[in-house]
Amino acid sequence: MSTEEKKSAGAVLVFYIAVLNLLIIIVAIAGRMLLDWSPASAFYPFFYAAQFGLIVAVLSALQIIFAFLKKNSRLKRYAFFSLVLGLAPLLGAILVVGPSGFKAPMIHDITTDTQNPPVFSIIASLRNAEENSLDYAGNSIASLQQQAFPDIKTVHSDLSTTQAFSRAEASLSSLGWTVVLADQEALRLEAYEKSRMFGFIDDVSIRIVDSAQGSLIDVRSISRIGEGDLGANAERIRRFFETFHSQL
Predict the structure, then answer these.
(1) Measured between alpha carbons, how far is 71 from 73 in angstroms, rounded to an integer?
(2) What pLDDT is attached to residue 3?
(3) Which residues of 49-79 are buried (b: 16+ CB within 10 A; e: fewer)?
(4) What is the pLDDT of residues 226-235, one digit of tens each?
(5) What is each CA distance from 104 to 46, 215, 217, in whole angstroms?
(6) What is the mean pLDDT of the chain?
(7) What is the SS3 assignment for 178?
(8) Of 41, 155, 179, 246, which residue is the least packed, with the fewest Cβ within 10 Å?
(9) d(CA 131, CA 157)
(10) What backbone phi and psi angles, to 5 degrees, belong to 155?
């Protein structure tokens, strides 16, 4: 077998490896969504397969260069498809998370009030010992948050506290989050959101207090598992306030 033939055979092998790598991701995500597998059973195959896909992509790129030099159309074709399949998991992650998500700091607890963040009561009973603590880490994450998400701040509203509470409750309903606490007397709400693809659960606490101009609204969003959140909690708070302000 000539060197060129060996290269062609190698390109075919890399192609089938790329297909298998992608199938592992598809099976893991399908299992999570259709069979209610745990979030980790889908995320970790995706995470490692995406990294392996980059190795496949590098090998494919080298094969493409060789194919152009040798004018081998068969090698070029297989290498091109392997490159696409190898990069597919990473490109998919970028589309879902967005480029800014990969720049987010390794924190998973975001709040509009870093000095006195909203607390959790009902949510605490829904968490287990293996999940992230609900205790706020203080300055160690507050400074990171303020640098990465300077727009996440307490919202001042001209609505009364009662009106703000009703609108906040309606906003949670519009967003489709699961509400576990709606205490109008204490002006507090708690809810959680479950991600569709991996099934990760993030918890939200909303606190409303009276102010001279109307009311102050603070929100805290924290992931149950994982050290970093790829900017998901900050984006969740933004979505809440966008929905809050759009309510009639």
Answers:
(1) 6
(2) 56
(3) bbebbeebbebbbebbebbeeeebeebbebb
(4) 888 889 999 9
(5) 20, 30, 24
(6) 90
(7) strand
(8) 246
(9) 34
(10) -100, 130
